[in-house]
Amino acid sequence: MSRREQSRNFVKDVRYIHWRVVPSGDALSTGDGKDTFHVNKEIVGYRLVGVDASVDDPSSSSGISLQLYSANDSADLLSTPITIDSGDYTSTSASTPSVVTAGTVLKSGDRLRADVDNDGNGASGLVYHLTIRNF
Fold this sequence. Notes:
The chain is mainly beta. It has one helix at 3-12; strands spanning 14-27, 31-38, 47-54, 64-70, 75-76, 78-80, 82-84, 99-100, 111-119, 124-133. The longest helix is centred in the first third of the chain and has 10 residues, at 3-12.
């Protein structure tokens, strides 16, 4: 297989999931299980390779801290939580980027839970952006 074919195949195996956790306009508040995502058969075996998040209205005075939790395995899936810095809308420019726990593979029946560890001040709406790859 040529490099071009390998590159094309590699890109085909990447999927992006945009998961609305807190409705637009609703205030962000701390707590576990703000929403749950159920893994369906189309993505079983995919590896979680990245997680970011965004809010509709940013926190005005303190950062936001988020976690992704596997309810089936009773374990956090991020060794470094998602952070959204004060005044920012996304975690993509966070001073501390999130880190996915190595070897996180999605299994049939997995329930992923969105946890808000720190809600900042005045933030609203929340979307998790998951990047998964089938190796």
